[in-house]
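Our consortium's second objective concerns turning raw sequence data into structural hypotheses that experimental partners can test. To show how far this objective has progressed, the report includes one record in full. It was chosen at random from the queue rather than selected for favorable results. The single chain below, 505 residues long, was entered without modification.
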Amino acid sequence: MATEIRVPTLGESVTEATIAKWMKSEGEAVSADEPLVELETDKVSVEVPAPVAGVLSSISAQEGETVEVDALLGAIDAAGAAASSKPAPEAKSEPAANAGGGEEIEVRVPASGESVTEADIGEWFKKEGETVERDEPIVSLETDKAAMDVPSPAAGVVKKIMAAEGDTVEVDALIAIIEAGGSTSNGVAPASEIGDANRPSPRAAAAAGHDVSESSDKPLSPAPRRVIAERGLDANAIQGSGKDGRITKADALAATAKPAQQTRAPSAPRDLGDREERVKMSRLRQTIARRLKEAQDTAAMLTTFNDVDMTAVMELRNQYKDLFDKKHGIKLGFMSFFVKACVHALKEVPDVNAEIDGTDIIYKDHYDIGVAVGTDKGLVVPVIRDADLKSMAEIELEIAEYGRKARSGDLKLEDMQGGTFTISNGGVYGSLLSTPILNQPQSGILGMHRIEQRPVARNGEVVIRPMMYLAMSYDHRIVDGKGAVTFLVRVKENLEDPQRLLLDL
């Protein structure tokens, strides 16, 4: 009897995912708990393991398709025998007559789900005239949901590339021709002799006068290429920190801050029309923009402000930082104070720790605090679960581990599920004041900002204190103004007098 493979639960606010990669083909033997398929949401990837040992008898959803929670992905025959592997239908291939050599095989844009009708050419991994192996990735495609690699349908030579990087192509569009079994001697020019007409379409490279991605002898992926082209940088002068010395987006952004690495030549004054450039938004940026706008359209979002004197917290840190580090192996930071202060306030104002579900309000007696972390791929919000039951040392250790995972790309989907309230620290980037957007379906988010010395009145005298502005955005459909202000005042009081936390006042 066949055992079904279905899309697992992806979190309260996540209802769908994209098939990123099948690690097994139909007919292949699998072991219990062996990863079968990788799913992607807008922020993380998750692997679906085999529920039983056996043979992968069928695949119901192909790579690139968008599937909902509990959708059927495939089936495993526990009693079946391994059969010969079948290639995943990632690219259509149709033979054509070729008088000059081997069989010509077309590479077309694969289907990527019912709601996806087009994609952008992300990066060509091969050039015209280069040899390829069967199933070797030759081009990456980007949709508004995910990126996917299209493999070569046969071994041979890339005879013709029909679409340049950055082009938008529809499903089933012809993007390349492979000459099966061919070689560079079969009338196909080597990559070094291919003209500019067959190279990726250039972006305007400011005053450099040429496409920096073409002048570079380093391989560039789309993200750093866009930064380099838009800011007129010399890719050859940038030290890559990625695998095999590849330049990452972070490398390109870092180079922007170093004028010595910019090779812009002086240019004559241009007309106003030549001083503007229209660049299409990436699919990922379109998705981020849509989701942020949905949050604004769904919730009755409002922000209230206050400021907090950080003197007591800073003095407490300075007094015990060495002892804390020696005992727990982690530095005592500000975030653990804020997490504890927020939990204390959430217990007093439970509306902020609740969420709306249709016409119901769900009040939560657990305190799972999301901590926003910035990465090269965007903002992620890992969750500190049961923060009310953890010590400040445990909170600091967990935050440090989440930061490491975020930077290395090791965060898992379950790390970011089920938060009840979020804290975002824009102060690490120098922000003085902001209005954070809710992390749906939560009803509240606290924005921290930079600490700066400001004159304030204390006991009839003007003194200089380390002050921080706090911003609390909330969903006015469930949280009244009184509740929001009370919450923020309690956070302020707990930080200005941390002993209140110990005494539960």
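The partners drew two points from this record. The longest strand covers residues 461-475. The first helix runs from residue 212 to 215. Both points have been shared with the crystallography group to help prioritize constructs.
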